[in-house]
Design brief:
Layout (H helix, E strand, L loop, with lengths): L1 H23 L16 H9 L6 H12 L6 H26 L15 H12 L14 E3 L13 E5 L1 H11 L6 E4 L2 E5 L3 E3 L3 E5 L5 E5 L5 E5 L4 E6 L2 E3 L1 E6 L9 E6 L2 E3 L6 H4 L4 E4 L2 E6 L2 E2 L7 E7 L2 E6 L2 E2 L1 E2 L6 H4 L3 H17 L5 E2 L2 E8 L2 E6 L2 E3 L12 E4 L2 E6 L2 E3 L9 E4 L2 E6 L2 E3 L3 E4 L15 E6 L2 E4 L10 E4 L8 E6 L2 E4 L9 E6 L6 E3 L4 E2 L7 E5 L12 H6 L13
Parallel strand pairs: 1-3, 2-4, 3-6, 4-7, 5-8, 6-9, 7-10, 8-11, 9-12, 10-13, 11-14, 12-15, 13-16, 14-17, 15-18, 16-19, 17-22, 18-23, 19-24, 22-25, 23-26, 24-27, 25-28, 26-29, 27-30, 28-31, 29-32, 30-33, 31-34, 32-35, 33-36, 34-37, 35-38, 36-39, 37-40
Antiparallel strand pairs: 20-21
Length: 581
């Protein structure tokens, strides 16, 4: 500020000198009046009223007025004096900056950078430590670090074993009217399973990060010890922890209302080969439950399955992310709804990557979701973002079998091969709506397999299936059966009924003639029960795609699909521009 004042006064005085000379000049060279530097009349008046008597500048000005004003070189000299005055003022300011060490330590000034460099500096200065600091405790919750009464407090430093403390606090509150437990920011090390026996809510901090960390990755669970109802896990970070809820063979109604929301599953340490393959999250024989806005991460040391569901009723899996490249997360904070949630989550994921030295490629999934014998299930608006770098056998982004009344809509799928191990696989089920999914360089694969184990939930073929409005992108293997929309019945035992294909779009990249490729394949089965409509087209054209039928004659339906279906899915597929791994 001082430097600015000195500079300002010096410039004003220099300008004042020039204008005074102009006003008083009446000699040989009448230069006329100069236009004022300032447009602000008030500011000019202030300058005019300033007195410079008794100053060196005053006598210098008189000298120029009386002795040199009639000189034909006056204009040039006056310009030089003005220029030198400004340079000296600037010089004075820089010297003061370099030498300043007085009482008021202003510290280093933020340098002026090119935009990219300055942004990086700001990011480094503003990145918080989400594991340290304090959090306000929401009303009505028991703080694990200050539980009160005779309960021992958790430490949350990542070194002290907090297993027994957390178990005692949960046991104390579960099933009561005050059953909410709050985990402030910190690392809570656990060395054994944490069992839940009654209704309870476990809340992590929203402003920071609360990590529950396994001493042995994927060997420790948070689970229910008996049939339970009304469980909530929210805003928690599970480091090598598996979360499992099941009805214990007492039927789905015995365990219900289980909600897992806005949690992150990852591992900061390498797991053993046997533990590393274990599933991060499971729901078995329960009902009326939900899995919302969670993130599942796996690196090359823990290749396996994210989530698994079996014999559930009325479970929703909505808005989750499976697999991320942690060095490229900008898209996550601007393209995914709700934006405010994912913007905060992006910053915390970047913090986790640095804090735990996580590998950037966190997409090592055999599969993101297994479903078996589930009823009335919704799988909607999830991002299945597998890594193409696994070089291992894959078992589909989603593997659905034995389903009854299932909606698979608005999901984004990429990173699985364009072959028989990739994409979305659905087999031996009924009442499936598979609509408005964006499938990037992998396929949608329908199967009717032989029921060798005589599972009662496996339908003999497919029944009442609608494949509508999905967007396929084909790059690596365009026009192949396994990279497209296909049905396959390898055992000739399926009994299919009422399968409809409509409004699917096929975008084939890298070809000057995309219409040469076959996009819908029907192999074996009863072709008369597979209804393919003419609105299945090549991207950007009205041209119906080529259809390949084995054991039947290729043909399109002459009429349109039901208007009710069109109305139900009157929106676009969930397209995202995610950078490659």
């Amino acid at each position: 500020m001082i430097r600015g004042v000195v500079l300002f006064v010096s410039i004003i005085l220099a300008l004042r000198m020039g204008r005074s000379a102009d006003r008083k000049h009446s000699g040989k060279y009448n230069l006329g009046k100069k236009s004022p530097i300032f447009n602000d009349g008030a500011r000019q008046n202030v300058i005019k009223k300033q007195s410079s008597k008794g100053t060196l500048l005053h006598w210098t000005r008189r000298f120029f007025q009386e002795k040199m004003f009639h000189n034909q070189h006056f204009n040039m000299i006056r310009g030089v004096v003005l220029f030198v005055s400004i340079i000296l003022a600037l010089r004075m300011g820089r010297s003061a900056d370099r030498k300043h060490s007085g009482k008021y330590n202003l510290g280093k000034k933020t340098p002026i950078f090119h935009d990219g460099a300055r942004q990086n500096l700001i990011k480094k200065q503003s990145t918080p430590n989400y594991l340290t600091g304090s959090d306000g405790v929401p009303a009505g919750m028991t703080n694990v670090k200050q539980p009160g009464g005779s309960l021992t407090a958790a430490v949350g430093d990542g070194k002290k074993d907090d297993t027994s403390v957390i178990k005692a606090i949960i046991k104390h509150v579960e099933g009561s009217t005050n059953n909410k437990v709050f985990f402030p920011r910190g690392e809570y090390l656990v060395s054994g399973d944490i069992a839940i026996s009654g209704s309870v809510e476990l809340h992590g901090t929203q402003s920071g990060v609360a990590v529950i960390k396994a001493s042995t990755p994927y060997a420790i669970r948070i689970h229910n010890a008996s049939p339970v109802r009304s469980i909530l896990l929210i805003y928690l970070y599970f480091d090598g922890i598996r979360v499992v809820f099941e009805g214990d063979n007492q039927g789905p109604s015995s365990t219900s209302n289980i909600t897992i929301e806005s949690c992150v599953f990852f591992s900061s340490a390498s797991a053993s080969q046997s533990n590393g393959r274990k599933r991060q999250f499971e729901m078995i024989e329960l009902e009326n439950s939900g899995v919302y806005k969670n993130v599942f991460l796996r690196d090359s040391g823990a290749y396996g399955v994210a989530s698994s569901f079996r014999s559930t009723v009325n479970v929703s899996v909505i808005g989750n992310v499976c697999g991320l490249e942690l060095s490229k997360l900008d898209w996550l904070s601007s393209k995914v709804e709700p934006v405010s949630h994912w913007r905060d989550q992006k910053e915390k994921l970047e913090f986790l990557r640095t804090r735990y030295n996580l590998k950037s490629d966190q997409g090592y999934f055999n599969s993101c979701l297994y479903d078996q014998c589930d009823k009335r299930m919704k799988i909607e608006e999830n991002i299945f973002n597998g890594s193409p770098n696994t070089a291992r056998h894959r078992d589909h982004a989603m593997y659905l079998k034995g389903f009854d009344s299932m909606n698979v809509t608005g999901n984004y799928v990429r990173g699985w091969p364009a072959d028989a191990s990739g994409g979305i696989k659905a087999r031996n089920g009924k009442n499936l709506w598979l609509a408005r999914n964006y499938v990037d360089d992998t396929g949608i694969l329908l199967y009717s397999h032989e029921n060798k184990k005589n599972k009662t939930c496996l339908h003999n073929g497919l029944k009442n299936v609608v494949i509508y409005g999905n967007h396929f992108v084909q790059r690596t293997r365009p026009g192949r059966r396994d990279s497209s929309l296909s049905y396959y019945e390898p055992h000739f035992v399926g009994d299919d009924e009422n399968i409809k294909y409509s409004a699917n779009v096929f975008q084939i990249l890298g070809s000057s003639c995309p219409t040469q490729f076959t996009c819908i394949w029907l192999t074996n089965g009863n072709a008369s029960q597979h209804h393919v409509y003419r609105d299945n087209v090549y991207y950007g054209t009205p041209t119906p795609v080529k259809l390949q039928v084995r054991r039947g004659t290729p043909s399109y339906e002459e009429n349109d699909i039901d208007q009710e279906i069109k109305n139900l899915y009157n929106y676009s597929a969930y397209k995202l521009d995610i950078p490659p791994y």
